[in-house]
Amino acid sequence: MPVRPVLVLPHPVLVTPAVAVGVVDEAARSLAVDLVDTMRASPACVGLAAPQIGVGRRAFAVDVTGHRKARSCHGAFVLFDPEVLERSQPELAREGCMSVPDLTGDVQRDGALVVAGLDPEGRRVALEVDAFEARAVQHELDHLDGLLFLDRVPGPHSVFPRKVYR
Q1: Which helix (H) or strand (E) holds 47?
Q2: What pLDDT does residue 31 have?
Q3: Cis omega before residue 10 (within 30°)?
Q4: pTM for this model (two decimals)
Q5: Which terminus has fewer CB within 10 Å in the chain: N or C?
Q6: What pLDDT is stored for residue 166 in this prediction?
Q7: Of 26, 83, 95, 140, which is the active-site residue?
Q8: Residue 75: burial class (beta carbons within 10 Å; 0-12, 13-18, 19+)
Q9: Contact assessment for residue 113 and residue 86, using Cβ atoms and an 8 Å cutoff
């Protein structure tokens, strides 16, 4: 499937809550492939939500494999209509976003959670995630609600220019 362009702020789909997928059909499975392909084609990307590629549906992909901050790691996965079942103690850490390419920010997120949703085969799954994987999941969940990490920073003192790593 194609690698899709990633939308950047101020595109209106990024601030619009996504609608439920409902039934995992061929269109949903195609979206799942596009999310994973686009995520893998984007350097340092560990997650991507459907609104970021212009699709206003509740779906995201995450893969923190090999990331130095990851403890839990479920490999590459896609969830449709995800929901958080359990949350834990919040932690403050820096994060960035492909849809806000020039900035990073300090954001408080739960250190562990249980998230459930439908996989690309339409099966309901629940994943226990923690540390960096939990942060990535929550970041993508925010995209589905029309939120960006900038909506979660405590103020302008917590927003920074993105460093360029070579």
Answers
A1: strand 47-49
A2: 98
A3: yes
A4: 0.96
A5: C
A6: 42
A7: 140
A8: exposed
A9: yes
SS3 130: strand
The DSSP bridge partners found for residue 59 are 80
Q: Which domains does the chain have, with CATH numbers?
A: 12-92+111-148 (3.90.45.10)
Place of tokens 């969830």: 79
142 sits in which H/E element:
helix 131-144
- For 163, the token pair is 């460093």
68 CB-near residues (< 8 Å, 6+ apart)? none
Query: What tokens were used for 154?
Result: 């405590």
Q: If DSSP codes are grouped into helix, strand and coil, which group holds residue 85?
A: strand
Q: What is the mean pLDDT of each run of 10 residues along the chain (166 residues)?
A: 91 98 98 98 95 98 96 97 96 96 97 98 98 98 98 95 70
pLDDT at 1: 56
The angle at the Cα of 17, spanning 14 to 47, to the nearest 5 degrees, equals 55
The structure tokens listed for 107 are 């954001």
Contact present, 144 and 49 (Cβ < 8 Å): yes
> Is 140 noted as a catalytic residue in this protein?
yes
- Residues linked to residue 93 through DSSP beta bridges, in sequence order: 107
